[in-house]
Amino acid sequence: MTRTDALKAVIASLQAELDALKSFDIEALAAATAEKEGRIGVLAARNDNPISAEERVLAEEAMRLNETARVYVNLMSANVKQRLEALTGIKPVAYAPSRAVA
Fold it and tell me: Residue 38's CB: how many other CB atoms inside 10 A?
């Protein structure tokens, strides 16, 4: 598989991931995410030559789709948080990791 083919496959996986997010299809989301991770692995293995103009465009598209998915997940999470706060009247305390004791 060429790097161009690998990038196209990653884009297809990202599109499937977004479709699953939009439809709240957890099984499809898990499958698309696993597929994306595998395809990213293939892409990483093909990182031996300078990137071409076509590959740069494809990589930018993949980055845009990944960012869209990240924003979508964050918006869903914020919505759930807001609903839980409204339901319980409790605002969560900001997360602060505790220090390890030696």
Answer: 13
Instruction: Specify whether the CB–CB gap between 22 and 30 falls below 8 A.
Output: no
CA–CA dist 43, 5 (Å, integer): 9
- Please state, in angstroms and rounded to a whole number, the distance separating the CA atoms of residues 41 and 94: 35
Q: Which two tokens stand for residue 8?
A: 């196209």
The C-alpha atoms of residue 101 and residue 23 are separated, in whole angstroms, by 45
Specify the DSSP class assigned to residue 51: P
The ranges assigned to domains in the chain are 3-88
Is the pLDDT at 102 greater than 60? The verdict is no
For the stretch 40-53, pLDDT in tens is 988 888 777 889 99
Distance from C-alpha of 83 to C-alpha of 71, rounded to nearest angstrom: 18
Between CA 23 and CA 89 the distance in angstroms is 29
Residue with tokens 């071409």, as numbered in its chain: 52
